[in-house]
Automatic annotation (TrEMBL), chains A, B:
Domain HTH tetR-type: from-to ranges: 17-77
Residue stretches in coiled coil: none
UniProt entry tagged with the keyword Transmembrane helix: no
A Pfam family it matches: TetR_N
An example molecular function term from Gene Ontology annotations: DNA binding
Protein name in the entry: TetR/AcrR family transcriptional regulator
Alphabetically ordered keywords of this record: DNA-binding, Repressor, Transcription, Transcription regulation
DNA-binding region per UniProt: 40-59
Source superkingdom: Bacteria
Xref: InterPro entries: BetI_C, Homeodomain-like_sf, HTH_TetR, Tet_transcr_reg_TetR-rel_C_sf
């Protein structure tokens, strides 16, 4: 507290950022553990030692909190797997790595799977977020496949954008099957098999 | 009514079957139109000119009604596309046809997408239904790919079961992207592109 108070105008802002981050980490844990429907704002507030009213000061609604958790989670994935500073081949390898990592956090996978499905309703609070997210992730994979293509490493006849949409779709569907039955398949291995089927040399 | 009454013991049973079918058709329409969350038992009951208590006599809960709607829907698809009496190649062509047909009934696709995601929770009333459904559909596609393989029409290195799991996963994920943005992709075309990528000759 004293740090914050002594640092003038930037202090309270920095504290707000830190508080939001603490809340988002707690919310992710709560939603991942209890599911997004059962996970309550009160649980999240309790976990960070705050009142529900205090929490609502930072996030005006459960859906606003959810949206922020999703973006927070995306930032985390991006940091961990560095999708930008590498070749297309490296980026796809990183995506397969992310699929393997996701298998260690089933609650988060469950959260995303349920929200993606729910958000297909036009009036859902995360509708625009997911629409935008699919465009972004498709662009990321398209770009990676185009890089492979420019190096002559993509099989003839493969259209990068269409293959990218299939890759993202495949990943979503693998998550459903895996959540229903963890022993049914290996998400990362299946995603890799798909990418390999597009390329002259496997990942 | 008189037919039913005059036909003795089979009569009331036949009437029950017919009533259940009428309810299921109405429930599918209600859930497809209003979504499965907002669609209420009362809406369904009203549509078939029945009280809610009368409806509950046939289906003890909303989740039981949902499960029955899902099975009813599967039966309908199976009848329409005849997945059994044909070669593997014909069966896969029929699946692509089903994907094209689904694009005409977005409410049903939304219902399935949401329920599949929700049902990943072990305590969801449709959990076992979906687990079993994935096993069945995977087996159906595996069998079709094995038939192609036995005719030398599958590319070397393609494992039928693993490719079948990817096909089903792809389909689920395509539905999500399509529901979020109908112009983003053609589900049938994308599914066909995937099957074609496994085969020596396109479908």
């Amino acid at each position: 507290m004293s740090d914050v108070e002594s640092s003038g105008r930037r202090g309270p802002y920095a504290k707000t950022v830190q508080t939001r981050r603490t809340i988002l980490d707690a919310a992710l844990e709560v939603f991942a553990q209890s599911g997004y429907r059962s996970g309550s704002l009160r649980n999240v507030a309790e976990r960070v030692g705050m009142s529900e009213a205090g929490l609502l000061h930072h996030f005006p609604s459960k859906s606003a909190l959810l949206a922020a958790v999703l973006e927070h989670r995306d930032d985390h994935s991006t940091e961990m797997f560095n999708f930008f500073e590498s070749t297309g081949r490296e980026r796809l390898t990183n995506l397969v790595g992310l699929a393997a990592y996701n298998a260690t956090i089933p609650g988060v996978v469950e959260l995303f799977t349920n929200l993606a499905a729910e958000s297909t309703a036009a009036d859902h609070p995360a509708h625009e977020y997911f629409k935008d997210r699919y465009h972004r992730t498709t662009a990321l994979v398209t770009d990676s496949l185009e890089d492979l293509q420019s190096r002559g490493e993509l099989l003839p006849g493969v259209d990068p954008k269409s293959a990218a949409q299939r890759a993202i779709a495949l990943w979503d569907g693998l998550q459903i099957q895996w959540l229903l039955d963890r022993d049914s398949l290996d998400m990362a291995e299946q995603l890799k098999a798909y990418f390999d089927s597009l390329m002259t040399e496997p990942l």
